[in-house]
Amino acid sequence: MKRKKLLKRTLLILTLLIITFVSFLLYQTKDDINANLTNIEEKLNKYYSPNTMGGFAVSVFNADSTIYSKGFGYSSIQDKKPYTTNTQQYIASISKTTIGIALMKAEELKLLTIDDPINKHLPFKIYNPNFPNDEITLKQLATHTSSLDYNELVVESLYIEETEKDKSLNSFMSDYFEQGKYGEVKFTKFKPGSDWSYSNIGASLAAYVIEIVSGTSFSDFTQVHIFNPLKLNETYWKKSKSDSLLHTSYYEPVEDSITNVQTSGVILYPSRDVITNVRDLTKYCQAIISNNNILLNSESFEKMLSPQLNGPITNLEDDNNGLFFMIDRNNYGITYQLTGMSGGDNCITTMMWFDPKTKLGYIFLGNTGTSKLNRSNHNWIYNALVSLGYNYTIDNSTVSEKAKLRWHNIYNRVRAVF
C-alpha cells in the first residue's frame, strides 16, 4: 500500500516537473512581437521615438538575399530630409571588424601570424611594466586581452582633419608609446591574455602593425582587400569622399529631446571611422556570413569568427570573442547567442549581428546616440528585426528545416538563462 502511494506521489511530482519544464520552454521561446513582412513597418514605426531618435535604417538578411530593409525618421530634422537606405553615416566600432578581416588577410599573405608578438613587427617595444617578461600578441589585441587600458580621455580628444588620417597612426603610436607625449601609457594590473579590457588604442595598434608589414596605409589595405572586392562603392574612411547630399546629420540626446551636433574623424580611425549605408553594410555582413572566398579562405573565417578565449578571463563582458568580433547573448534583449559588433558614441548608435547557425543577420544604423530615454526603443526595434528573420525563415522552410530552426531557437533561448 505504501509502495503504491509512493509511486503515485512520484508520478505526480514527475508530471508537475514535466509541465513546469514545458511551460518554461514555451515561455522562454515565445515571440512577443510576431513580426512579418506585412506588419514589420507598422511595428518599427511604433517603436520609433521622434523625440529621442533622429533617423535610422534597418536590414534583415540571410547569406545571399535581403529579407527587409528600410529607413525611418530623418537624416536632417531641420530640412525634413528622410533617413533612407542610401543615407551614409559613421558606423563607429563596427569599423573594428575590418581590422579582424585585414589581420586574416595579412596572415594569408604571409605577412604575419595572429599569434605573433607585436614587438616582432613594431619599431619600438611595448610591454606591460607589471609583466615585463610577457609578450603581448596580435591575438590579444584582437580579443581585447592585451592588458592595454582604454585611456578614453586620450582617444576621444584626438579628433583630426581628414588630410591627417593617412599618417595619423604612425605619428600617434610613436607619440603615445615611444615619446610619451600623452603621459604614462595605461595598462591594467592583469597579465596579458588574462583580462578583458576594451581598447581603441589596442585595436588601432593592430591596424598599425598591418601598415608596417604591408608597407601601405590601413585605409588603402582595406580598400584593396575588402571594399573593392565586395564592390562597396558607398563605403569610405573619409567624410570628404562620401556623398555630402547623402551623409546624415548627427544628434545627441539631451534630457527628453535631441540636439544637432557635429562629429568628425578620429586619429585612431580604424577603430571608428568607416562611413557607409545600410545597403553596403548588409553586403559586407553577407560576405562574412557566407564565408565569401573573395574576402578570405574558409580557414581564416573559422579562426576569425570562432571563440578565441579559453579559460577564465577577468572582466569579460561577452560570452566570448572572435578576432574583433564579439560572441554574445542578450544584445539589446536578444536572449540567444549572436556574433557581430555594436558601436556608438554621443551621436551614433549601430548594431551588426548575425546567427552563424541560421545565417540570419540584423543591422541597425542610427544617427543619434543611445540614452536612458531611447535605449528601450533600440531594444524593441532590434527584437522586431530578429522576430521578422525568424518568422520569415520558418514560413519559407521545409518541415525538417522548421524542426531544426525551432530546436535551435529553443536551445539558444533556454541556454541564455543559464
Q: Describe it for me?
A:
The structure is a single chain. This protein has helices at 2-29, 40-47, 96-108, 138-142, 152-155, 165-178, 200-214, 218-227, 278-289, 298-305, 375-395, 399-415, and strands at 55-61, 66-76, 81-82, 89-90, 250-254, 257-261, 275-276, 320-321, 326-328, 338-345, 348-355, 360-366. The protein has 418 residues and is an alpha+beta fold. The chain has a single domain (40-415), classed as DD-peptidase/beta-lactamase superfamily (Beta-lactamase), CATH 3.40.710. Helix 2 packs antiparallel against helix 11 (375-395). The model has no long low-confidence stretch (mean pLDDT 91). Residues 53-371 form the Beta-lactamase-related domain. This is Beta-lactamase-related domain-containing protein. Pfam families: Beta-lactamase (PF00144).
Low-confidence stretches: none
Number of helices: 12
% residues in beta strands: 5-15%
- The structure class reads alpha+beta
Q: What's the domain count?
A: 1
Largest sheet: 8 strands, antiparallel
Number of E strands:
12
CATH 2nd-level architecture? 3-Layer(aba) Sandwich
Task: Give the radius of gyration.
Answer: 23 Å
Read across the widest sheet, the strand sequence of neighbours is 3-2-1-12-11-10-9-8
- Nearest-integer average pLDDT: 91
- Basic shape: globular
Helix-strand string: HHEEEEHHHHHHEEEHHEEEEEHH
Tell me briefly what this model is.
This protein is α+β, with helices and mostly antiparallel strands. Helices cover 37% and strands 15% of the residues.
Outline the secondary-structure elements.
Blueprint lengths: L1 H28 L10 H8 L7 E7 L4 E11 L4 E2 L6 E2 L5 H13 L29 H5 L9 H4 L9 H14 L21 H15 L3 H10 L22 E5 L2 E5 L13 E2 L1 H12 L8 H8 L14 E2 L4 E3 L9 E8 L2 E8 L4 E7 L8 H21 L3 H17 L3
Antiparallel strand pairs: 1-2, 1-12, 2-3, 4-7, 5-6, 8-9, 9-10, 10-11, 11-12
